[in-house]
Amino acid sequence: MTASPVAVTGIGIVTSLGEGTEANWRALLAGRSGIRRITRFPVDGLKVTFGGAVDHGGLGALTVAGRCFAMGRAVAAEATAQAGLGDAAFAGPLFLALPPIEMEWPQRRRIAARAAAPRYAAMLAVADEGPEGADHVDFLFGTVADRLARAFGTEGAPISMSTACASGATAIQTAVEAIRRGDCARALVIGSEGSLQVEALIRFGLLSALSTHNEDPAGASRPFARDRDGFIMAEGAAALVLESPAAAAARGAAPLAYLRGCGEAADTFHRTRSNPDGSAIVRAIAGALADAGLPPDAVDYVNAHGTGTPENDKMECLALQAVFGERATRLPVSSNKSMIGHTLSAAGTIEAAFSVLTMRDQMLPPTINHREPDPAIPLDVVPNVARPAAVRTVLSNSFGFGGQNVSLVLSRDAG
Questions:
Q1: What count of other Cβ atoms lies within 10 Å of the Cβ of residue 178?
Q2: Is 270 a known active-site residue?
Q3: Among 44, 351, 51, 35, which Cα is nearest to 196's?
Q4: Which CATH number belongs to the domain containing residue 53 in this structure?
Q5: Based on the number of CB atoms within 10 Å of its own CB, is 87 exposed (0-12), middle (13-18) or buried (19 or more)?
Q6: Active-site residue identified among 213, 305, 317, 370
Q7: For residue 240, what are the domain limits?
Q8: Is 286 helix (H, G, I), strand (E, B) or coil?
Q9: DSSP H or E stretch at residue 306
Q10: Is 342 a catalytic residue?
């Protein structure tokens, strides 16, 4: 039995390309890169010196938790306004995807210096408001969600989740399932990632997961190209307002698109690597299509995970070939990460939002920096230049460290 569709009635986006949905979409279609040399902290001597930083609006001066909250608030305000729900408390729960919030060195030193102060306990009592000295509470994992829930008046306890690079798609799937079960009529989904800080950059570098094209940051993200050498760490956020079609119709809201299917599958191959045979990815894609009640031939475009790592891109290609057969070579498949980098916990929500815009404008965003095609990846990656196309249904893939995989099927109509 086909599961019921869920309407998307509002979206909001912030990335290294800028703030706001339309500004980001114009930049994406123009093939502009938001990747640049990092100025937020000293990078001399580091293996990797660039990334997709979100520094506009003073965000670069904030902590990871502060950036996640500020970007989450900005995109949620845009999404709820577009949905026509921005003037009152949000009548539904909040599902938030964010990175594992951890204390940064400046805050560790400050806490160590103040821990013995008699007034420290009093500081913690009001810490969720963010005064100086409140680092201990600000860096608790659920604090960002609590602050966003208060800001938008969402119902019930907010749900925070972190499933590595699949987090944003996991948050969408969880909200879709809640609406389908009848637990709520609508939900606010936010994915927010602000982890571009020196320790994280060093750790990913030690895993040899990052591109080291320091001399050409804008050209470093090369998904599916033969000369790809890793992903680019980036920040950003997106929000989606999801509603049952009945709830949207009752208030006269016009859906932008519909979530038709969600598929999830995991493997236990390695702590960080996915199984190179792509079997879990195949199950996630097939599960999303089955949930949507659609055959593979119904998909018009794939918003790929497309990180630019040698192994992951090849694995995604193998999975697409397994699901779509000989049609895989003709099916347009592009990677937004070529322009905005890998936004990690927020990637699934950002790419779902871009998928909605792809269907709205019937335009395929390109995979830029595609100068050397890889003979082992015979896909139409929409190289370098955006392309008009008839797009009714999109498959959006998100594959996380440790083999956590989620695929989403979005359509222009409810079927």
A1: 20
A2: no
A3: 51
A4: 3.40.47.10
A5: exposed
A6: 305
A7: 6-104+139-411
A8: helix
A9: none
A10: yes
Q: How do the pLDDT tens digits run along the chain, 415 residues long?
A: 568 999 999 999 999 999 999 999 999 999 999 999 999 999 999 999 999 999 998 898 888 999 999 999 999 999 999 999 998 999 999 999 999 876 666 766 766 666 666 665 555 544 444 444 466 666 676 889 999 999 999 999 999 999 999 999 999 999 999 999 999 999 999 999 999 999 899 989 888 899 999 999 999 999 999 999 999 999 999 999 999 999 999 999 999 999 999 999 988 777 666 777 788 999 999 999 999 999 999 999 999 999 999 999 999 999 999 999 999 999 999 999 999 999 999 999 999 999 999 999 999 999 999 999 999 999 999 999 999 999 999 999 999 877 889 999 999 999 8
Number of domains in the chain: 1
- The answer as to whether 72 is a domain residue is yes
Active site residue 305: yes
Residue 124 falls inside a structural domain: no
From 165, 184, 262, 317, active-site residue: 165
Amino acid letter, residue 413 = D
Any domain includes 379: yes
Q: How far apart are CA 384 and CA 287, in angstroms?
A: 31
Evaluate whether residue 110 is within a structural domain. Answer: no
| Residue in 184, 213, 262, 342 annotated catalytic | 342
